[in-house]
Amino acid sequence: MAKVFVTRALPFPALDRLREAHEVEEWPGELPPEDLGAHLGEAEGLLSLVTDRVDASVIESAPRLKAIANMAVGTDNIDLEAAAARGIPVGNTPDVLTDATADLAFALLLALARRIVPGSEMVRSGAWRTWEPAADLGADLAEATLGIVGWGRIGQAVARRAEGFGMEIVHSSRSSGVPLEELLERADFVTLHTPLTPETRHLIDADALARMKPTALLVNTARGGVVDQDALRTALHEGTIAGAALDVTDPEPLPADHPLLDAPNLLVVPHVGSATVRTRAKMAAMAVDNLLAALDGRPMPYPVT
Ligand code: DGY
User: Fold this and answer.
1) 195-232 confidence digits (pLDDT tens)
2) Residue 195 C-alpha to ligand 1 middle, in angstroms?
3) Is 223 a catalytic residue?
4) How far, in Å, from the CA of 130 to the mean position of ligand 1?
5) 252 is catalytic
6) Residue 126 pLDDT > 90, yes or no?
7) Angle at 42 between CA 41 and CA 46, to 5 degrees
8) Is 211 an active-site residue?
9) Backbone angles phi, psi at 42, to 5 degrees
10) In sequence order, what are the residues at sequence separation of 6 or more whose Cβ sits closer than 8 angstroms to the Cβ of residue 126?
């Protein structure tokens, strides 16, 4: 039996398989452990979440660590090089959250385009006076151009949804599609589906925003760091673009008094791209499968490194 540290209570059936095979310590807090390294002195396995920064110093404080299973497809919270230097395999949960995340990107796109949140607020505040012929007008999706930045599983799943809505699709990635500049200039809606890497940090900066149409809407369900939030705030205040919807921010959580939140036409939700009952249960199962394999000396079924 190996000692495994799980960084949050995970109420999913798959955890029973882990508890049966190993000595599992589950962090009981509602918030992530502040000093993760302090809990890893004896740990051979780590089940981490996107909220856990598994950096070189955390890895160093875990001398017996043999496996890291991140319950996420993204692994920008983990220092992969530091793990590789110690020969610690890292696994993630690809594929399984593709549809849920693409659904959320589309939900945000529709919410922005059809002004769902302002409309709801108007009703609740008592400001709804009559059926207005020329107020609360949104943007059509049909015949509009959707620019998809990143052409991995999630970007392509968003494209499939967009086809059903009659949108024109243009994409940009490292290996295919059109140059990002062209996409930004052509698109009526821009949706981000690229991992956060040193190359993609602040990919959407002031210059990129300036290329977008003043009527364009931006959706980010990738990682907060892909967008320069100061530049986005300015762009929204100055009308450089018409609106933005973010599932991801930098930092997370975004404090309620963060300056970004005073920007107009901004919708922010709390990193819920994969938050469906079935998807989260599958993610937990994959993370458990990764740990069970690695702690048994077998290759992880869903390896990152
Ligand atoms: C991921 O998996 O990377 C998401 O951001 C969290 O589900």
Assistant:
1) 999 999 999 999 999 999 999 999 999 999 999 999 99
2) 10
3) yes
4) 42
5) yes
6) yes
7) 90
8) no
9) -105, -10
10) none
